[in-house]
């Protein structure tokens, strides 16, 4: 508003008000377009990262077939299912911020929605038919990789795109959040 009030005042620079206003509007539009294009690239990479994370969530569920314990399989299934609620909300918010067509938004939603079930089916079949070749620690590695992709997407793409600067305090809390589960479950029996 302040820039608009200055652009509407009389200028003594020898150019008329309309050409100056057109010039300023052209500059404003160019800046807005550049900012929008940069933010769209960041938002798209966030959506792609969350889709990749969903693939590894499915890998975790599918590889839990290794466990003969039904309680472990059900616990992992329900944990991933409840986790998907918040992840779907995040993907929906990012897709909304992209300001893209309905058709493109539907394509992103389909990719995200299909990633976990497809990778669950694929990894379950892989585990069932080649269980003698797959180490029993695969479930732990799959879980760690899924968590790692989530941390990478959230720290490198999502926080910067919402305008939050990650400082030492935030990194400290992130490290505490990583260390607490590690310390709690280091001596766990399975």
TrEMBL record:
Bilayer-spanning residue ranges: 47-70, 76-96, 108-132, 138-159, 166-185
Sequence segments annotated as region (Disordered): 1-23
A GO cellular component annotation in the UniProt record: Golgi membrane
Any single GO BP term: zinc ion transport
One Gene Ontology term of the molecular function aspect: metal ion transmembrane transporter activity
Signal peptide: none
Topology of this chain in the membrane: Multi-pass membrane protein
A Pfam cross-reference name: Zip
Stretches assigned to coiled coil: none
Alphabetized UniProt keyword annotations: Golgi apparatus, Membrane, Transmembrane, Transmembrane helix
Places the protein is found: Endomembrane system; Golgi apparatus membrane
Superkingdom assignment: Eukaryota
This protein's name: Uncharacterized protein
Species the sequence originates in: Blastocystis hominis
Lineage, broadest ranks: Eukaryota, Sar, Stramenopiles, Bigyra, Opalozoa
């Amino acid at each position: 508003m302040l820039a608009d009030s200055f652009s509407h005042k009389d200028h003594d620079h020898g150019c008329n008000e309309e050409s100056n206003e057109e010039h300023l509007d052209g500059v404003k539009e160019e800046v807005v377009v550049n900012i929008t294009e940069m933010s769209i690239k960041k938002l798209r990479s966030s959506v792609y990262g969350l889709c990749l994370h969903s693939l590894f969530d499915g890998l975790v569920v599918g590889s839990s077939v290794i466990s003969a314990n039904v309680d472990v399989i059900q616990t992992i299934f329900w944990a991933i299912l409840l986790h998907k609620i918040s992840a779907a909300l995040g993907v929906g918010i990012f897709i909304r911020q992209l300001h893209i067509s309905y058709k493109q938004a539907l394509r992103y939603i389909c990719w995200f929605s299909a990633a976990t079930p497809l990778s669950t089916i694929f990894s379950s079949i892989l585990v069932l038919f080649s269980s003698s070749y797959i180490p029993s620690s695969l479930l732990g590695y799959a879980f760690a990789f899924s968590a790692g992709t989530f941390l990478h997407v959230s720290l490198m793409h999502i926080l910067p795109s919402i305008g939050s600067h990650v400082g030492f305090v935030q990194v400290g809390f992130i490290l505490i959040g990583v260390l607490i589960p590690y310390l709690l479950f280091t001596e766990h029996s399975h």
